[in-house]
Each structure stands twice: as structure tokens, then as C-alpha cells.
Amino acid sequence: MNSLDQINQELLESIKQRIAFASGLENTLEWAQKDYEFLVFFIEDETGVRLSLSTIKRIWRNEYNRLPHISTLDTLSKLAYKKDWLSLKKQWLEQSHQSRPVVKNRKGEKRNPFIYIIPIVSLVLIVVIVGFFSLNSEDEIALEDYEAVTFSCRKSVDGKIPNTVVFDYNIETVKADRFFLQQSWDKSRRVEIYKGNTKRTDIYYVPGYYTARLLADEHVIKEIPVHITYDDWFMAARQPISNIRAFEKKYWLDSPYLGISEAALTSKKIDLNQEFQLAFYYVKEFDLDGDNFGYSVMFKMNLVEAFSCPKINLHVQAEKGHYWIMFGNKGCESELIAEFSNVLHDGKIEDLTMFGTDMYEWQQFDITVVNKKVTVRLNDKTIFSSTYNLPIGAIKEISYFFDGIGVIDNVVLKNGNGEITFSDDFEESE
Asked: Where are the domains of the chain?
């Protein structure tokens, strides 16, 4: 690696550290899918630029063979340092060059000044990161300060939305300036709490399997699961991503499959000429081992002019991990990913063209998992296989996220013995 490559990587690492800290996300090595999703939303809210989920994952996981596109670097650099990438890099190079005198060799020739840049930039990087963190946090919280911390919750209702959750906590032993309770991965769902109180309530408007966090300043000191179940399918749309509009059953299509009409979307102020996300959720105790199960569903999408690359994200959320599988129209495969627990397959650096299909026709999707070995089938043809090593635990949620308008049918879940444990063909019972 040459000096300039080293500088580029160190500068990008500094930018990533600042953005992660500003977004409230720490321990980047432990991020789950929803942490990356939140970072996408955070960057869009702060800059007005939406970077793709796969781009964010590649950058923060250091899974790129060359630097990201200059427009992406500019977005991140401006968010972190209020300067575009080239201006920021020029400033770093100038500061590094000016901080050292020109040294001549024994023949009186000037030595290449870049041989001094790496250690200098490394020092600057350390100073910048340490200085930034010191401006934003107090001394590290001692372990013994929060060993006595308690954090628990209970729901006010079961199987209903909205759902008020009562959080009980004890933070009296912790020394910090401020304390927060964060409802989920979404930093916008963070509220301040105070010593002397032991309860805080919050409302969940969408079902799901969440991780609530207790924070002292910016340190996560406790985490607990919050399983917001629902008695039926739940449908919602987002435009922008932070604005959720739920659709009661009266808005659903009167068809033998699950979907919604354009008229219903526009009735809730969804602009079909702009991008939006449509989501279906089914959240309950499935009594299924996420490392040994079978799952199938049919799906298709409708033509919407705002989407040149219509996509579906199939999500299976479990106690300790998840599956996230994307399908898109033929020609759009570069933006797709397939994630199984701790293993990510990225269409930017792998061939995922087998996940491209005609999204405007019915597609049959099947996945079989046997002892963490995954087999994916599309229209009765095996298209992909993978393995992972971190168990994901019991399944808590299945959901579908459409970039555009989509419908689903014939959902089936089976246990490791092939026995059906859940199914829905959306036919009205007699």
C-alpha cells in the first residue's frame, strides 16, 4: 500500500468514527442490520443524501477494494468535517507537509516528503479522534458504577398497536451528566431520563422485535429485548423514512393476497411520484429455531414510475440475529444483498444476479436452513447457498419491505422436521 492509499484509508476511518459517534452508534463491530439501517436514515436526515444500505455496510465493514465514489466521500466528509473530501484531504496533506522540514540525502537531493506523511497523519488522526471524543464525553464510566443498574419492561397490552411499554430502571450508582432511554435502534426514539425516577413509558407504533437501550451520556450500559407482537398482519408506509403511516385492514386489497391500492396510499398522503417504502409485518412467538426451519412466500410488485429498480427485502428477525434477503428487477442486481446472521453477501462485490427477476410477475421464494446451512430457491430452482456460524435463536418476526408497491401470498413456515407451524393464504375463512 502506498502513502496516499494509507492517507485515504486513515482519513476515511476518522470520518467514519465521527459519524458513528454523532449518530449515537458505538461498538461498530457489533452492529446489527437495524444499526446500519439507522445510519442510512441518519445520514439522509443530516445531509439530504440517501446512500444505499449496501454502500454503508461496505464502508463501515471495510469491505471495499477501492475508495467509494467521490460523491459518497463528499457526503460523508461534509457530515463529519464540514468540508468536501478533496478539500479535507488537501488540508491534511498541507498540514502534514508543513509540519516537517525538507530533509536532504547525502547527495544533496531532496527526499520524497511523503515518507513522513504516514506517521504524521497517524498522529493527527489520533489527536483528532481523541480530541473529538474528549469534547463529547466525560471520563469512562467505571464498571462498578453500573453493575447495580437494573433495566426491565412490561407491555400495557398484548397483540395490539399502539402499545405503551413501561420501563423500570435504577441508575442511582452511575456517574454521568445525562441519561437516556432509547426505544430501539432508532436514535430519534431516544428520551432523557433522570436520577430519582425509576419509570419511563414509551409508545410503540409498529410491531417488531426491538432492543431497548439505557445510556449514560453516550455509553450503552444496559440492553433488553422488547417484543411488540400483533394479532394480525400490520401494514405501514414511510415517506420520508422517519414518517410512518399505518393502514388499517379496511384499506387492504379485497383480494386473495395481501396488498394495498394506489388510492389507499394516496389517501394517506403518500406521493407516488416520489420514492417511499411499503412494509408488511407479522410479529409473534413462532416457536421456531431460526437455525433449522423452512420458509416460503410468493410475491410480486406493481409498476410505479418513481422506482426504476423495484425491490423487495425479506426479513426474518430472531433473538440474536436475522436474515435479510433482497430481490430486484433484472438489471438492478448491483444494489442487492443477502445476509444470513453474521455473513453478508453484497451485490457490489459478488455476483448476485441470480436474485434478479421479473418483479412484475409472481415469484415463488423458498429458504431452507439446516444447522446454519442456507439454501435459497426461486421458482423451484436452487439459486444460492451459504453458511454462517453465529446462531440467531428463536424467530420473532417476519416482515417485507418494498421499494414500491408489492403484494404477497401463500406464506408458510415449517420447523426442522418439515411440519407447518404457520401459514396464511389470505383466503377469507367461511
From this structure: 3-136, 143-228, 234-424
Q: Which string of DSSP letters, residue by residue, matches 325-345?
A: EEEEETT-GGG-EEEETTEEE
- Dump pLDDT digits (tens) for 266-295: 999 999 999 899 999 999 999 999 999 999
In CATH, the number for domain 234-424 is 2.60.120.200
CB 395 within 8 A of CB 382: no
Entry pTM: 0.69
Query: Using an 8 Å Cβ cutoff, are 296 and 283 in contact?
Result: no
Q: What is each CA distance from 67 to 18, 73, 126, in whole angstroms? A: 18, 8, 21
- The matching CATH number, chosen from 3.30.930.10, 3.40.50.720, 3.40.30.10, 2.60.40.1930, for 143-228 is 2.60.40.1930
Order of all β-strands in the sheet with 179-182? 190-193, 179-182, 208-216, 219-228
Query: For the segment 201-255, what is each residue's pLDDT rounded down to a tens digit?
Result: 999 999 999 999 999 987 888 999 999 999 999 999 999 877 899 999 999 999 9
In this prediction, the residues of the chain whose per-residue pLDDT falls under 50 are: 98-124, 126-141, 429-430
CA dist list (Å): 29 to 33, 192, 346: 12, 26, 18
